[in-house]
Amino acid sequence: MDVSLATSAGSTDRPNEDFVGAVPGAVVLLDGAGIPGAESLCAHGVAWYTHRLGGALLGHLSRGDEPDLAAILATAIGTIAAEHDDTCDIADVSSPQTTVAMVRARQGRLDWLLLADSFLVLDQVDAGPQVITDGREVIARRECSAPLEGVTSGTPEYDRIRASCVTALRARRNQPGGYWLAKDDPRAAREAVTGSRLLADLAGVALLSNGASRIVTSYGLTDWVGVLELLANSGPAGLIRRVRQVEAQAGSGPDAQAPDDATVAHCTHLPRTESA
């Protein structure tokens, strides 16, 4: 399996909180979530957490010592939690956390796991792309933001309601009926979206963090077919460059979004046998 990787920090004044890495036959992509003002909760920070968790996941995947991706994630979450639970308030709702996307080619199949809002794009041999994500955070955000509808932005009332919406959204994190991320509780791994496909049905697979998926979801610059074409022609780095170009063109206008960390992994020449 050939794997191309690229990542880009959204800002030059803070570390890239994404992580991406590969071992033979498997890829891991994490999109860390930084909560402003939460630095006192953890002395290490979000980038430390994503890199430690990503490294632990790659270690398990390289050894092939566990067939279940959710079990691998649960073990890794527990391991990293134990590394800093005596120095940091890891149980606080705002402590370091991350999305998780994993794929593994094994025994003629591609297995995947998604936790929170990264994207997996399966390049199907005889059909268009199959796009998979965990949409529960998007749903929770929409529901929690409903009280803001019709309220004029920039007013004290808007700020007050928005603060309550943020509190409500965070209260749903890693809770039944809410949405799930990798954080301090290994049980979150069992809430991940998982699946499997025959490798023979796939020409490739792409993994995109939220910041990279904006090329479709936020900016509408292309569709998912176009994403696969862009990856084939320009690779992950080329896709991220297009995202940055759109962000630069938007400037500070009313529709502008602050640049986010953006990360892409593109897998081609998928193995058709157990060997990757």
Written account of the structure:
With 276 residues, the protein is of the alpha+beta class. The chain folds into 2 domains: 2-134 and 180-268, PPM-type phosphatase domain (Phosphatase 2c, domain 1, 4-Layer Sandwich); 136-179. The protein contains 6 helices and 10 strands. The strands form 2 sheets. The chain has a 5-stranded antiparallel beta sheet. Helix 5 crosses helix 6 (224-250). The longest helix is centred in the last third of the chain and has 27 residues, at 224-250. The chain is globular, with a radius of gyration of 19 Å. The N and C termini lie close together (6 Å).
TL;DR?
With 276 residues, the protein is of the alpha+beta class.
Which key phrases capture this entry?
five-stranded antiparallel β-sheet; 2 domains; 10 strands; 34% helix; alpha+beta; 276 residues; Phosphatase 2c, domain 1; globular
What is the fourth-level CATH superfamily of the largest domain?
PPM-type phosphatase domain
CATH class of the largest domain: Alpha Beta
> What share of residues are in beta strands?
15-25%
Unreliable stretches (pLDDT < 50, length at least 5) are: none
**Number of discrete domains:** 2
SSE string: EEEHHEEEEHHEEHHE
Label the CATH architecture of the largest domain: 4-Layer Sandwich
Cα separation of the termini: 6 Å
Shape: globular
Specify the helix fraction band.
Answer: 25-40%
Using only CA atoms, what is the Rg? Answer: 19 Å
| Assembly status | single chain
CATH fold description of the largest domain: Phosphatase 2c, domain 1
Q: Assign the structural class, choosing from mainly alpha, mainly beta, alpha/beta, alpha+beta, or little secondary structure.
A: alpha+beta
With strands numbered from the N-terminus, the spatial order across the biggest sheet is 1-10-9-6-7
Instruction: Note the main sheet.
Output: 5 strands, antiparallel
Mean pLDDT, all residues: 92
Number of E strands: 10
Q: What is the count of DSSP helices, taking H or I runs of 4+ residues?
A: 6
